[in-house]
Design goal:
Helix content: 25-40%
Number of strands: 13
Distance between the termini: 51 Å
Largest sheet: 7 strands, mixed
Number of helices: 6
Shape: globular
Structural class: alpha+beta
């Protein structure tokens, strides 16, 4: 339903917003009323990438794809239990903080209709293989227009991975009423000074945006460092998650 027209500079075309684009605009406009801050850091995923490749085949046999996103899903589910203020929402009308006792992690998916965010329910109760399979299934359903409304609702935290496209860092916008979102950019080999010399290490840029009404900067960097340490030392999840 393209409408042709013109303004004082030249010809223009007008087209109605798609339903997905309209809902995205409405939700992001609502989210923008919260004071956003973004914290940036990098994780050394050199050893984790080796493990990802090593165990990728077994996950593929189960029907999923072992990606960095599915691994971070597990890490985030554990981090949210350790930092409950990140698994919450703010009710300004009643002047209350609502802490969620369930851990539903949304993952942004790029589709031809726009950005959709399927939600992995009870991510804390699922192993990485199960998370990989479910993420693959939901992502495909989102792209093929088979995703249900229920599968797009109930999130308590969101992950947005733009690494497959490119970029170094970005400032993701909150997915209201959530109070935090983690952005993942493309990993690159960088020289890192270790034990008296520079070594090539695979570094993953991470961007954590958060609602400053509830989360202070010190808590945000503690949360992000916890996530990074879990990626750099996977045994940490077993110990503390």
């Amino acid at each position: 339903r393209l409408k042709e027209g013109s303004d004082k500079w030249g010809d223009i075309d007008r087209t109605p917003m798609s339903k997905v684009r309209r809902l995205t605009a409405e939700r992001l406009t609502a989210a923008w009323t919260a004071p956003h801050v973004t914290q940036y850091d990098k994780a050394d995923i050199t050893e984790l990438e080796k493990l990802r490749k090593e165990f990728g085949e077994s996950v593929a046999k189960a029907g999923g794809k072992l990606t960095m996103t599915s691994i971070i899903l597990k890490v985030i589910a554990s981090a949210l239990k350790a930092f409950p203020e990140f698994n919450a929402s703010v009710d300004m009308e009643n002047e209350e903080i609502i802490y969620k006792n369930y851990y539903n992690v949304g993952v942004a998916v790029d589709t031809d209709r726009g950005l959709l965010v399927p939600v992995i329910k009870n991510a804390n109760k699922k192993n990485i293989t199960k998370l990989s399979v479910e993420l693959s299934e939901l992502s495909e359903k989102a792209r093929s227009k088979k995703i249900t409304v229920d599968e797009l609702q109930g999130g308590t935290f969101t992950i947005s991975n733009l690494g497959g496209i490119g970029g170094t860092y970005f400032s993701p916008v909150l997915n209201a009423p959530e109070v935090a979102i983690l952005g993942i950019s493309r990993s690159v080999i960088e020289p890192v000074y270790i034990d008296g010399g520079f070594l090539p290490r695979l570094m993953l840029p991470l961007s954590l945006s958060y609602d400053h009404r509830l989360i202070d900067g010190a808590d945000a960097i503690r949360f992000l460092r916890w996530v990074i340490e879990a990626l750099e030392e996977p045994f940490k999840i077993t110990l503390e998650g």
